[in-house]
Design brief:
- Helix 1 packs antiparallel against helix 2.
- It is elongated, with a radius of gyration of 20 Å.
- A hairpin with a 2-residue loop joins strand 1 and strand 2.
- The chain starts with a strand and ends with a helix.
- About 60% of the residues lie in helices and about 5% in strands.
- It has one domain.
- It has a two-stranded antiparallel ribbon with strand order 1-2.
- It is mostly helical.
- It contains four helices and two strands, in the order ββαααα.
Length: about 130
């Protein structure tokens, strides 16, 4: 990947990017399976579900549904992040912060391969 930004040329060798791409694609497949499993475990998706429950059963069902929804939303966010990283890899912008345009620290990328922002911009976005 070659990208000119602010007078510097950034480059990652294909020998480094290909394993990252394969890892991210594998993680995406795992997350999709996890999402499908979570949706199946939602009590509201049970075809034998009855609406005439006791208060306790209804409460358990509501809590189970809420728990499933929260987990599915979390997995959806992870899927979006992985897709963003794969897209940035495809267009030659992997490792470049999408907010400030500077190179993301390689230590950060080593820990979080799907990072699309540098630590500074991530902290600013969390405020």
């Amino acid at each position: 990947m070659k990208n000119k930004k602010k007078g510097t040329e950034l480059s990652f060798p294909a020998s480094l990017l290909n394993p990252i791409k394969m890892f991210l694609e594998g993680e995406l497949i795992k997350l999709k399976r996890q999402k499908k499993s979570l949706k199946k475990s939602d009590p509201f998706s049970n075809p034998e579900r009855t609406t005439e429950n006791s208060f306790e059963e209804d409460l358990d069902e509501q809590i189970g549904h809420f728990d499933s929804e929260i987990k599915v939303n979390f997995v959806n966010k992870q899927i979006v992040q992985l897709r963003k990283s794969l897209t940035r890899l495809k267009i030659g912008k992997y490792g470049i912060c999408e907010s400030c345009g500077k190179m993301i620290d390689t230590d950060r990328l080593a820990i979080k391969l799907d990072a699309t922002t540098c630590v500074k911009c991530t902290k600013e976005n969390e405020k």
